[in-house]
Amino acid sequence: MRNATQTLLTLLALTGVITACKQTDINGTNDLYIANDQAILNYASQKAYKGSKLTSGLYFYKTDSVIGAKKPAVGEEVQFNYKSYNINTGVLVDSSASTTPVYYPYGIQSILSGLEQGLGLMGEGDKAIMLLPSYIGYNDRALTNLPAYSPVRFDVTLVRSRTQDQQISDYISRNSLPTPELSTTGLRFIRTQTNTAGTSPTTGQTVTIRYAGRTLRSRTAFDSTGTGTFDATLGQGKYVAGFEEGLSKLRVGEKATIIFPSTLGYGTTGVVQNNTYIITPYAPLRFDLEVVSVK
């Protein structure tokens, strides 16, 4: 397959670069950070919050708790809504639209570290207030209504957390796709055009194909042949396992939609371009395939 070209991880103002500032990188004697910590304690006291300040610097206060609720595991897709405020002024900084929640693969460390830690303390249906000092927040980034090195408040609702199998099942349902053939590897295979007289490709052959690949939350392809074709050689380990397995099930003249978990795709690494995830770790993928010829 070709190199992916479409940025997939856009989480409003939450998105950070892949190599982010860590607690161990911070000089704890810095007056700005000390002032952040004190401002958070003062704010929590004034609001009579009944939360606690963690060793990371995060102040966490769960305002609504669902007993026995499932907590997110690393690699699951969390769905949440939020509003953020400047603690010093009370002014709204950012929010997710009520009709457009944020979807994020939990544990990949690509959003604010304080926010990610707080999400891990929540269960499905929980609501929480998180107070982040700048060293686990936006640090030296300035946003509208939030100067650099400012503490920030997040009001968060964790809607749900889904495994990759659940994500795939949800995707098939909401897109009204036919019930797929499920292989032992986890590949979902939906043949959309049949040609029983077509030749089946074998290992080592070059297969001329058309394809488009996308993540399950994206409306646009991260990679495709467009109006052209692509020559793929099977059995040489050049492509992700799910892509090869899907191709091997097709004959010349046939088309299919395949959906597979990240264990058959880009795994826990994803695809990075210019320090931004093109495909995030733990991302299930969809490919639409057509076999044009075999030689």
UniProtKB/TrEMBL annotation:
This is Peptidyl-prolyl cis-trans isomerase. Keywords: Isomerase, Rotamase. It is an enzyme of class 5 (isomerase). SUPFAM superfamilies: FKBP-like. Residues 75-162, 204-295 form the PPIase FKBP-type domain. InterPro entries: PPIase_dom_sf, PPIase_FKBP_dom. Gene3D superfamilies: 3.10.50.40. It comes from the Bacteria. It holds the Pfam family FKBP_C. Transmembrane segments: none annotated. PANTHER family: 39 KDA FK506-BINDING NUCLEAR PROTEIN, FKBP-TYPE PEPTIDYL-PROLYL CIS-TRANS ISOMERASE FKPA. The keyword Ribosomal protein does not apply. It comes from Spirosoma rhododendri. Belongs to the FKBP-type PPIase family. It catalyses: [protein]-peptidylproline (omega=180) = [protein]-peptidylproline (omega=0). The lineage of its organism: Bacteria, Pseudomonadati, Bacteroidota, Cytophagia, Cytophagales. The keyword Isomerase applies. Its EC number is 5.2.1.8. GO terms for molecular function: peptidyl-prolyl cis-trans isomerase activity.
